[in-house]
Amino acid sequence: MPGRQPANLDGMLRSLLAVLLVCSAISFTSLVAQEAKPTAKSKTKSPPGYTPGVTTITSFDKDHTVIGWLEIVPFQSKIFHNQRMLRVLVPANYFSPHNARRSYPVLYLQDGQNLFDALTSEHGEWHVDETVEHLVGGFKIPPMFVVGIDNAGEQRSAEYLPYPDPLNTRDKVTGEEDVRGKEYARFVVTEVMPFIEKRYRISRGAMNTGIGGSSYGADIALYTALEYPTTFGHVLVESPPLWIGNNQLLKDAEKAKQLPQKMYIGIGTDEKPYNDAQRSQQVVDQVKELESILVKRGMGPGRLRVNIEEGGEHNEAAWSRRLPDALLFLYGQ
After folding, report:
1. Based on the domain organization, do 100 and 191 belong to the same domain?
2. Nearest-CA neighbor of 280 among 265, 263, 293, 267?
3. What is the C-alpha end-to-end distance of the chain, expressed in Å?
4. CB atoms within 10 A of CB 60
5. How far is the C-alpha of 292 from the C-alpha of 92, rounded, in Å?
6. What is the tally of structural domains in the chain?
7. Is there a single domain that holds both residue 3 and residue 130?
8. Is residue 275 a part of any domain in this protein?
9. Which residues have C-beta within 8 Å of that of residue 296, sequence separation ≥ 6?
10. Tens digits of residue pLDDT in 293-317
11. Domain with 129 in it: what CATH number?
């Protein structure tokens, strides 16, 4: 008996080892099968910032001239009963976990089609994306959102004008009943802004909120800022036709209860409204009149800058050229 015990022990060990190997093989096979075949509940993770229905254009899209991360978001208006695109320039590193709790200031600009991408602009672009990237990269302005609100095409003049333009018979906006700018101001404040603030991490308050535009877009930006003085602290006004409504915007500035914290106004000496060179001096004189009103109301050099560009015309090239100066004044650190 003592001589056979090791043989029995050896057999038992071999049997136990065989069982363990079989169990391990079964477990491994089962694990591989589970990993190879996802369960019905598993979901493919989308890249940061992805939202169905939203188009994202980045610096890698060579068919476009966009720098950075631009989201194009469809937006339906209950006020105007139409749809337009909101073009949202997202700050660099917005999706980084390191910035997950960080919020950012925002600038709302009109004519969104003309701000970021030459592919969507009829007359050239403002190069807002390149300018913002350059200034933020140089630590001259803080990282920020820029929201371009597309115009409504044929209804652009009607939506942007708070008061009639007696000179614009082509767009049929010569009467009070023809213009909807007052509704547009409400559209920006009560529809667009809540949507953007819900979707993105936006810093609240007038000191973090700006509005701007050019031509009729400048008119509606100025009107909206004066109409909602506690909402917008920064205003960018480029080439505004201040004669609308019998100079009513000048009168609005005179009687406004509160003015924005900062305002930048740009104008060229060769604007030629309605291709009439004789009117170029008129638009400059009216900007100077607006400047005088604002200065008398207490807006000194730290709050107001007026840039009268010699030879500047009424086009995107001029507004793009003046944009760095405007952003540095409004947001400079």
Report:
1. yes
2. 267
3. 94
4. 7
5. 39
6. 2
7. no
8. yes
9. none
10. 999 999 999 999 999 999 999 999 9
11. 3.40.50.1820
Rounded to an integer, what distance in angstroms lies between the CA atom of residue 296 and that of residue 282? 21
For residue 281, give the H/E element and its range: helix 280-296
* Integer Cα distance of 234 and 284 in angstroms: 22
Pairing status of strand 145-149 against strand 106-110: parallel
Three-state secondary-structure class, residue 313: coil
For 16, the domain range is 1-44
Backbone angles phi, psi at 287, to 5 degrees: -65, -40
Contacts of 104 (CB under 8 A, 6+ apart): 91, 94, 142, 143, 144, 145, 200, 201, 202, 203
Query: What is the phi-psi region of residue 111: left when phi exceeds 0, alpha when psi lies from -120 to 50, beta otherwise?
Result: left
Give 82-124 pLDDT, tens digit per residue.
999 999 999 999 999 999 999 999 999 999 999 999 999 989 9
Cα distances from 112 to residues 45, 151, 161, 242, in angstroms, run 31, 7, 17, 22
Strand, coil or helix: 145: strand
Q: Tell me if 318 is assigned to some domain.
A: yes
Strands (E), 165-242: 209-214, 234-238
pLDDT at 1 over 70: no
Diameter of the chain measured on Cα atoms: 126
Same structural domain, 3 and 92: no
Let me know if residue 49 belongs to a domain. no
Q: Give the pTM.
A: 0.85
